[in-house]
Amino acid sequence: MIYADNAATTKMSPRALEEMCRTAGEIWGNPSSLYGLGQAAQEALTDARERMAKILGAEAKEIYFTSGGSESDNQAIRSCARLGAAKNRKHIVSTAFEHHAVLHTLKRLEKEGYEVTYLPVHENGIVTPEEVAAAIRPDTCLVTIMFANNEIGTIEPIGEIGAVCRAAKVPFHTDAVQAAGHVKIDVKEMNIDLLSLSAHKFHGPRGVGALYCRTGLPLYPLIEGGAQERNRRAGTENVAGIRAMVTALEEMTANLDRNAAYVRSLRDRLIDGLSAIPHSALNGDPEKRLPGNVNFCFEGIEGESLLLLLDQAGICASSGSACTSGSLDPSHVLLAIRRPHEVAHGSLRLTLSEENTEEDVDTILQEVPRIVTYLRGFSPIWQDLQSGRRQHLL
Amino acid sequence: MALYSEKVMDHFLHPRNVGVIEDADGVGEVGNAKCGDIMKIFLKIDGGIVTDAKFSTFGCGSAIASSSMATEMIKGQPVEKVMELTNKAVVEALDGLPAYKLHCSVLAEEAVKAALKDYFDKNSIPYDPAQFPDAPSCASCEMH
Ligand SMILES: Cc1ncc(COP(=O)(O)O)c(C=O)c1O
Q: Ligand 1 centre from A201 Cα, in Å?
């Protein structure tokens, strides 16, 4: 099997897995308990918090452990919205192609009386700091823009956007779920006020994440209850998951440059090879993208049938077609970069990790063109494109 | 549980009656590219019997499987019988489809009927227009 869906989730690293099992087995006390067993867990948690802070360029007291990217996004946005409302600021700046954890939270806030500006992204999948600056108003209480897009992998100019927000004194949140462990992040240098990350995107376990919130910026809890996470996130801590997350992030950070160079070389071979398929197009900027992200549209075919056939060939991938999302519209990300609906239905996302090999790339480069040709062979759209009854869009 | 039944996967992986019939007696095309599925069905009709059926489909696994199954179900059948084809029968023959894929079977029924209507029109065969409601192909999409 070739696993090329690392943006969906990743396989746990052996070291992270070992740390998770060891911690769950040995340090199983409740960190809030005062006896030794509990205190050992508390210490394990403190140690994990310090190590995570170090990686992000933050301080330990600025790290809050959560259940993952969705929760971190929800809390960051809701907290800033509440803070804004107290000052009569109820405007938020974001982009049209955020993850649903952000978009759906913003949609809900709109129903609650907030106003949201969704910046359109350019065709290369990038928003500019100037556009962000122009969208900020006196009543803006939050700018939330993702670090890297989960579908097309484009990396936004986060440091520059951070500088714009800092100058305007507006809190800046970034969903770095796809970026953490894959590209360098320094929250101080980049003027990031809040940042979300999720362990399972960098070879940690599913269901664990973190929220960084800069000292001085109040953070309201989303989950009420006990006094865990300094009253910002109730619930007995998932110490084993948290330790595994930090282990994985440290490992990824230590090898970041080497991994990125290797994965990027695989990615670029895939991009070159797939570009040879007639009437195909790469989605997102070719340079400013995550090392492992490949995302193409192929005219005349539909993504789900492509995925099913790739699965038969032992290749795990994903698509932004409507059928794969269970909704009627194709991916909002592909629509945001202005791919027409009919083209967006024929998208394929391959996301690589350091575990992939040159042979994997060879196999993918054999199978994808074969399957695209096969599906086009009985596609009425392709027949119309060939006969000139329909104009090519790619 | 897998997304699709074994029957659906069989018809998706080994679609029956793929292709076009150049001198078809009736051709029906439904769906639209914007919604992500188009089905085109070609019929050969001789002495009131559908002697051959082929399809071209742009769409997901269940759209391809529904086209394949529908063509299998109508081949060799008299036109009157083919008129009675329902999406429900296609779904049953496929051992079920996930709820949000049911519209694929609707498209298959509509494509077959559109091909029959084309055959009636070409041959000036009278029919009750009520039997061909203005194909709300892709109705789910337009509702959206
Ligand atoms: C950009 C982005 N944000 C948020 C999430 C949600 O993360 P989680 O699955 O940990 O809740 C994901 C993962 O699907 C993502 O890719």
A: 8
